[in-house]
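User: When convenient, might I ask for sequence and C-alpha cells for a protein?

AI:
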Amino acid sequence: MLAIASLGLAANLTAAWFVHGIGRSTASTRVLVLHLGGDAAGALAVIVSALVILAGGPVAADALASLVIASLLALDALKIHASCEGLLNEIPGYLWDDKAAERGEDAPIKADDHSIDALRYE
C-alpha cells in the first residue's frame, strides 16, 4: 500500500509539474493540474494511513483516509474549476447519431456542444 501510494504521489506530482511547466496555460491544462493535485492528495492520504498502520496504529486509518477524501468531495470542498461548468452541463445531453452508428460510424449529433468541441480540440 505504501509503495504504490508513494509511486502514485510521485507520478501525479511529476505530471503536474510537467504540465504546469510547459508554459501553455489553457483551461484544460489548469484543470489537469488541479486534477493531478487532487490525485496527489489522495495518494498522500493513503501514505499517511499506511504510516499510521506501520507504526502500530489502527488498521481503520486506511478507511478513515478514504472517508476524509470522500467527505471533501461530498462537502464540495474540492471544487470543479469554473471553466468546466459548460462541459459538465453539456455531457449528459451529448447524443450519438443512431443511423450513423448502424453504419459503423462514430458521429455525434451537433447541438449545444461548444464545450465538448473545445475539449476535443484543445
Observations:
- The chain has two domains: 1-79, 82-122.
- The chain has a mean pLDDT of 78.
- The longest helix spans residues 27-54.
